[in-house]
Amino acid sequence: MRADARRNRARILEAAAAVFAEHGPSASTEEVAARAGVAIGTVFRHFPTKGDLLAAIMKDLLARLTAEAETLAKDGDPATALFAFFERMVREAADKRTVAGALSDGGGEFGVAAPVQALGEPIGALLAGAQRAGAVREDVRLDEVLALLTGLCQGALHAGWDTGLRGRTLAIVFAGLRP
Amino acid sequence: MRADARRNRARILEAAAAVFAEHGPSASTEEVAARAGVAIGTVFRHFPTKGDLLAAIMKDLLARLTAEAETLAKDGDPATALFAFFERMVREAADKRTVAGALSDGGGEFGVAAPVQALGEPIGALLAGAQRAGAVREDVRLDEVLALLTGLCQGALHAGWDTGLRGRTLAIVFAGLRP
DNA sequence: GGCTAAAGTGAGCCGGTGCTCATGATGTGG
DNA sequence: CCACATCATGAGCACCGGCTCACTTTAGCC
Question: What's the pLDDT band for A167 if we cut at 50, 70, 90?
């Protein structure tokens, strides 16, 4: 692959991440191209379909989140790591429409069902650790945690969720998870 | 207003409610017209803008929910009425994309900011009643309850939230609200 | 430096959608 | 029953966004 092609690919990915984070998946490909400083044709050369571009962005995002969850599960304090990850994800979802979009892709709308499932694994580890540490009730299941997470992320990108409200809302959910 | 006009208006509203509930606000006006059994022009005669049609549907929906909340606040058991209303709304949101759409209209995207605020009032009454009855912690605020409600409604219309999961997830939130 | 394959370009095609308007149909008061 | 205002109709317009492709530019190798 030629050097300029690699360069442009990177610029397109960066621009797409910013544009889709701000305007959601409905943002136009032209806007991505403009932000990347390339022509439309170049975007479609690297990503034959808008869906491919979206999937690339979301896979990248989910991979980063998965890595963070794994790190937390390995090195974090089991009693607080799950809650910390919640906080982390909801904060990110608040200004990245991509997060909520990716998480709710159960139907495979963006082709990132597998990465989402992969994210579930380390979250399961976080949950198990929290339960062993006595920080979360034993009867809480992973699917419930994921449901709460997607719901909170969805809600976070809508009006009025300033930092204070976000924290207080999360606190209520955390209280519901504790024994 | 002529009789046939009233009849068609009602059919359009009914069709729009069904179509938007199923496919969300992005559904086409033509589909609404087809379902109502009228021509496109007729839809635009009654609702000059697609936004007007959406607003009408959502206002109607929110008014019904508001009425239900008021009834519950007046006649229901204060200790359980708030939870019952949560259950009710989330269940409806699960198969009506309109609910989540309307609730998250803080930015006035669909012009139903006022009806949403009106819905907040009786919910505040439900919250106050639950707190007096000792069913909800005293330090829980209305905005937190509304945030949880919107988040859960958003999450409810996405993959995997079968009845069981929905109930268990709500149970966790309820546990977080209790003293 | 010259050559070639790889990459970039952007006007344009196409399908879809919100909305209009000239025309025809119809309900209704007198 | 008739006249007319109200209403319904649907082809068509304007616009938008995904995507293509003939053509131009350029990177990298000899």
Answer: very high
